[in-house]
Structure prediction request, 464 residues.
Amino acid sequence: MAIYDFIIVGSGAGGGTLAYYLNKSGANVLLLEAGRFYRKNTFPKTEAEASAELYWGGGIEYDNQAKLGFLRGRLVGGSSIMYQCLMDRFDDIALNDWQAESGINYFTQNGMDSHYTQIENDLQLHTFTEGERNGNANLFVKACDELGYKWGYLRRGQHDCGRELGNDCITCLNGCHRDSKQSSMVAFVQKAEENNLKVETEIEITQVIHQKDGVIVRGLQGLIGHKKPVEYKAKKTILAGGAFGSTRMMLMSGYQNQLPALGKKFATHPQFMWFGFQKEYVDSHKLFFQSVASKDPNFRANGFKLENVFSSPVSTSMLFTVRGAQHHDFLKRYRYMQCVEVAVRDENIGEIRVDKKGKLNVHKPMTDQDNERKTKGHNAIRNILKTAGAYEVYESQMSFGLHLMGGCTIGVDGKNSVVSPEFNVHGMENLYICDSSVFPNAPGINPSLTIMALAHKLSTLLIK
Ligand SMILES: Cc1cc2nc3c(=O)[nH]c(=O)nc-3n(C[C@H](O)[C@H](O)[C@H](O)COP(=O)(O)OP(=O)(O)OC[C@H]3O[C@@H](n4cnc5c(N)ncnc54)[C@H](O)[C@@H]3O)c2cc1C
Prediction:
């Protein structure tokens, strides 16, 4: 059996980034991915197909009370294929809280700066300007200004969204057909392929065996029908399957007795969507879907932020939990809908478990504090929609977790965390984890830039 320098399991924001830097250093790297390798010209064309083909669970996975839906990608690029690519550094509030929870002293602006800078240099980033606001953004901005709420332009990883063509490619969330969106696939994996990175797809790893001289990973190859058992070995292996994926691989490998914190401290920034009906067209699906967001220090202190989002036609039809004529009536007014959502900075009391067959069982109740934050966010949205002139508002009864964090948290102490400050699984010198599963708690800020920065940090430690 060939023995690689490094195996990386999972090719999303964490794994894809790490593969690029390790491959660039001249190491012999194997990148394994459970999903397929779609390219810009092979992404599914419709929302329904994309939902079935690109996501774990064929679309939405739910918590064990079916109250919160989770979205995560299963393809090369992971969830970075469907993300909005909003790229924010963490502020002092988030970094100080991480330091307090983990005991790690590099969680400071200085400690993270070189890693953020490297990623920012390697991605193509664009900060929106006034001329790029669409109807939805204009309503949000006008209302925030009237109410005295602070807002700001977003920074997104994109380089050519085809604005001159009307930028009507609303399939962007299911794979960018222009290779404009800076997913880990576009920004890192495709580039590393040119430098002979070995990528094996449709391989789901189910067992990780730590040995003194390396790590063996076992799994099954194939998505449909007969699945072939496979086995690989590397001197060092990094799990980057995301909060659910990495935690699941560790639990299925039986490490829970050794690692009491495994599966714990799961958080997800629960999001709740609101619609405001206007008399004029809003056309939130046109031009740039999301160019502004709340930047109000008061909202930040109260643990929520507002996003001026876009809701696609299929998602919108699902978010209206009414029936028949009422549903029809809402959808007829699609072009008149203003959309705003709140994301809650939630407490990390969730737990990721698996049953004997490896099926996920995620426990994620909302705490009193989470509900208080949500209510404050809802009050702010109501004010915005009313001030913007909505004659009717609708609060969706469905909520989603798009930022899956924790389960294999980082920290100095083997009782309360799973990986060391150097991303080593406690007590296992050849096994590492580096993705959103290591987040000590919910930052209340978009996570991907930090996931990539942490991957860059680990690459520098491993290359040394
Ligand atoms: C709709 C949507 C919008 C979002 N918008 C933003 C945004 O604007 N900004 C932002 O910062 N974040 C955003 N996010 C969140 C962001 O995409 C994720 O936080 C980030 O991609 C997580 O990175 P990761 O490496 O931890 O996991 P992922 O990117 O999910 O990658 C994990 C990979 O591991 C693979 N894998 C899992 N288990 C196994 C296994 N057993 N064997 C082999 N492979 C496995 C998966 O298939 C996947 O490809 C969004 C997410 C969604 C769904």
